[in-house]
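Exercise 7b. Backbone tokens:
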């Protein structure tokens, strides 16, 4: 840690808990984010992905396992899950362009999640949702059938892997950076586009316009279903509240 960074961290009056669950925690101390992760493999991926990504990313200030220190990005998040985005259509298009730049980059050397792994996870989570009675059987069945359409061969690209709307920062109509690269790897390009536009369907066309290539919108919607179905148990078990309050549950119900 440099003296300048240390001084900057000392000159603060509080510590903000940005994220806390059973796996990891993120603290904000002034303009420094401290990511504490029990699984250093995820941190290894994040550091490597940041070094490879051809888009703006947070500056790596220092690393002392299990802590990774990152600099803050300027601007603000493109939006929040479950809330209307106040960002302009041009900002959403800029996000699409940034994603295209990432997807056109050379593949990272580590493999992504296989179709068989995705299928197993989908089946396990749907079984849990039905057994737990979190959602009615017809809702789970409908979205499971739709989600299964993503389980097909694709040409792998360099994906972010967890590109939800709060991880993309913008200032006006420009992207100032993309956060949280621990899930990066080889994968389906449409997964990133779907994750970004989850619960923000009104901006899907803006993102596609910036991406610059026409895409299969039905597969994007299928990835919406897949992501919502597989994340609910994790959110519940990691203390994010009642599943009935999750935006993912509301989205599944609304799109029956």
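Sequence design result:
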């Amino acid at each position: 840690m440099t003296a300048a960074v240390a001084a900057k961290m000392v000159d603060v009056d509080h510590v903000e808990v940005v994220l806390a669950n059973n796996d990891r925690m993120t603290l904000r101390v002034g303009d420094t984010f401290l990511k504490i992760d029990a699984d250093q493999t995820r941190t290894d991926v994040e550091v490597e992905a940041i070094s490879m990504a051809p888009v703006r990313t947070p500056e790596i200030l220092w690393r002392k396992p299990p802590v990774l220190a990152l600099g803050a990005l300027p601007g603000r998040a493109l939006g929040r899950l479950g809330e209307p985005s106040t960002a302009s259509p041009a900002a959403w298009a800029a996000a699409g362009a940034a994603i295209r730049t990432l997807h056109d980059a050379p593949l990272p050397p580590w493999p992504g999640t296989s179709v068989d792994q995705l299928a197993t996870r989908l089946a396990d989570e749907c079984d849990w949702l039905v057994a737990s009675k979190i959602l009615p059987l017809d809702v789970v069945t409908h979205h499971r059938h739709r989600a299964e359409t993503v389980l097909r061969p694709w040409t792998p690209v360099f994906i972010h892997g967890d590109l939800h709307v709060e991880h993309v920062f913008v200032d006006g109509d420009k992207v100032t950076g993309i956060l949280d690269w621990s899930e990066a790897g080889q994968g389906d390009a449409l997964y990133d586009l779907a994750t970004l536009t989850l619960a923000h369907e009104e901006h899907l066309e803006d993102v596609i316009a910036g991406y610059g290539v026409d895409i299969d919108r039905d597969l994007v919607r299928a990835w919406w279903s897949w992501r919502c179905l597989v994340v609910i148990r994790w959110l519940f078990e990691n203390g994010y509240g009642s599943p009935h309050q999750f935006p993912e549950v509301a989205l599944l119900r609304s799109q029956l």
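Instructor comment: The mean pLDDT is 94. The radius of gyration is 18 Å.
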